[in-house]
Amino acid sequence: MDIQERTIRGCGDNNVEMVDIDEENFTISSSSAEDAAFDAVIGCIEDIIMEEEFQQLQQSFMEKHYLEFEDSDENKLSYTFIFNEYVDLLEKHLEQQLMERIPNFNMNTFIELLMQHKEEVPGDIFDMLLTFTDFMAFKEMFLEYRSEKEGRGLDLSEGLVVTPLIPAGSKHTGSGESL
């Protein structure tokens, strides 16, 4: 499967239509058009996940389920149901939005391209997309969310060292002169 660039209404300045092309009918490969189309889809995904509607869906879902997740090697059966619900809710929302913005968008075609271009995708976008297919990435997202909610987020205070500018035991006056 391949994609072809066409000018249409899209996300921001990214105007692209995804079209499945049979190999029999496809005689000339245009990697630059394919790259532009892929970049445009990634741009649309960035737009969608930054929108309030997506943020609200994800936030409310995580708020509803984060207490269920525990940082252990054992995975509860309930995680599977939560994972499936998450995929149904957020991946379907993302796919619906992409289909509205990119006529003839095909998620399967995009996933094939994503695997070919994964090193070109910004890390945060790739990580978010990974939560739809990789259970461990999904679980890690919930564990990080729970840590933040419980105030156990990243603590950099242990790495900080405070050194006084004036050595201890020295006499110092407010005028800057030493006695």
The H-and-E topology, N to C, reads as HHHHHH
The major beta sheet can be summarized as:
none
Oligomer: single chain
In DSSP terms, counting alpha (H) and pi (I) runs of 4 or more, how many helices?
A: 6
**What average pLDDT do the residues reach?**
78
- Determine the strand fraction and express it as a percent band: under 5%
Unreliable stretches: 1-9, 13-19, 21-30
Number of strands: 0
> Level of helix content?
40-55%
Q: How far is the first residue's CA from the last residue's CA?
A: 82 Å
Q: What form results from the Cα inertia axes?
A: extended
- From the alpha-carbon coordinates, what is the Rg to the nearest angstrom? 24 Å
Q: What structural class is derived from the secondary structure elements?
A: mainly alpha
Notes on the structure:
- By secondary structure, the chain is mainly alpha-helical.
- It is built from 6 helices and no strands.
- Helix 1 (31-50) crosses helix 3 (77-101) and helix 2 (52-65) packs antiparallel against helix 3.
- The relative contact order is 0.13.
- The model is unreliable at 1-9, 13-19 and 21-30 (pLDDT under 50).
